[in-house]
Write a structure and sequence with these properties.
13 helices; alpha/beta; 7-stranded parallel sheet; 16% strand
Length: 358
Amino acid sequence: MRIIVSAGGTGGHIYPALAIINKIKDMEPSSRVLYVGTTDRMESRLIPSLGIPYESLEIKGLNRHSLLKNFEVLKLYNKAYKKSLKIIKDFKPDVVLGVGGYVTAPLLKAAVKLHIKTAIHEQNSIAGITNKMLGRKVDKIFISMKDSINDFPKEKVVFTGNPRSQEIINEKPVTKKELGFDNKPLILIVMGSLGSATINSEELEITRQIKNKDYNILLVTGERYFGDYKDIDLSSNIKVVPFEKRLSGIMKSTDLIVTRAGASTIAEITAIGLPSILVPSPYVTNNHQYKNALELEKNGAGIILPEKDFKSSTLLPLIDNLLSDKERLESMHKNALKLGITDSSDRIYKELKKLIGD
């Protein structure tokens, strides 16, 4: 298979794209993959470091506050479209796959123009603007959450789940002992790889209130907030780290997670049946994290804690109550597993093969 994969901007797009690439490489070691991303976002550094061939497009998202600035956006888009045509003609892919982010728009448009097979993957319960637009033109649409079928032409949609779910299944667990904890229940608190400015002050308070609790906490602050904790006298049942690259493995040894409700996180939680307290970010487009979290809550797999209510005085009693109710925790575990898709990458690979006629 010769495939161009494009995804940009955030880990929520990039890591599912990488999971798909890994699956294709596992199934077809001789396959040729080209990744197309932006010139200056996260993928522009990460993807080349992994040895994956990379082409960049200079492009920006629409500015919702300044019509004047959108003239520059349109100019960059047209330039990116012309470059996309050249990239596709040179690489000669069997299929072009977009996994989210505005960088995918000119590339997929160019692929349609050149009569190349096309597909997109949508991670969230509410589709992003770019994917909504592309959905009318591409051949296949892969979705992670069933609610997003309402945003697309139904005849093109295939429910595949999020590829991150299959990746976590294969991760080696990081044990509590490896983290320096005893065998008490482990609570993982993580608000995305960068952390959260609006939540950090309350996380600081949690570190002061945790001393007499009969459980352990691993708090991942994000690099920019880690320095705020240097003068705090931490008790032995809490560890604070700026970043943790073994996060998926740690989740497999965690008893309860407190986290945002991004699509990849939801996919990982449901794949392993991890009970969760979900704090949806209110700053994302169309409030889609709340909709993601709502699917877990209404199925008894998670509990939504709105950001405005995220306080040590609210969170710690909630954790106490859940840990004291073993039946509820077990029910959350089983209900989360029911929502999980553990063969998402396999499903996408098979659909791509069908699309190109193999």
